[in-house]
Amino acid sequence: MDLKLPIKIHSELTDEVITATGLLDLASGEIGRIEYEDYDPKAEGQPMEREDYEFTSGLLSHAGKDVEFSIHVDRTTGRHSVSADELLEIKVKAAKLFAGIEGVSLLGGSAAAQQAPAPAPAKKATAPRKPRGGR
After folding, report:
1. Measured distance CA(98)–CA(83) in Å, rounded
2. What is the band of 40 on the pLDDT scale with cuts at 50, 70, 90?
3. Interior/surface letters 14-45, b for 16+ CB within 10 angstroms, e for the rest
4. Is 64 exposed, middle or buried (0-12, 13-18, 19+ CB in 10 A)?
5. In angstroms, rounded to a whole number, what is the distance separating the alpha carbons of residues 55 and 71?
6. Structure pTM?
7. Using one digit for the tens of pLDDT, what is the confidence trace for 99-114?
8. Which of 55, 108, 121, 131 shows its CA 20 to 30 Å from the CA of 69?
9. Domains in the chain, please, with CATH?
């Protein structure tokens, strides 16, 4: 399945934020087709190469609701991505926020849901025991 969602990308510098758009691949966590707004990386260099670069974050928006997440930037290759854990968290938060679906429902018939332990059966209510002996 090839599902890519448009995202906003914010590269945080000491005194400036560089904004871009890109596509987040929900299968792999890779971010591609990055296009900077009011910033020329060919003339000014990639944001992550700058001395005052701090970090990069992403924003997934839908119907006025947002999910913010951390983006890993490989300074050597310039590749942008999210970790597997971050990607799962994005999917769960987005489903809950945008569609009102709980994380457990997302697992549904997945292997993770099938491996999860079944909830413990409820204990029967019993009357208190009387003490033994002649007291």
Report:
1. 22
2. very high
3. eeeebebebbbbbeebbbeebebeeeebeeee
4. exposed
5. 8
6. 0.73
7. 776 656 655 544 444 4
8. 108
9. 4-102 (2.40.10)
Residue 13 token pair? 């510098």
Distance of CA 52 to the CA centre of its chain: 26
Residue keyed to tokens 């970090």: 55
93: three-class secondary structure by DSSP: helix
Token pair, residue 31, equals 């971010």
- Which residue shows structure tokens 């991505």? 81
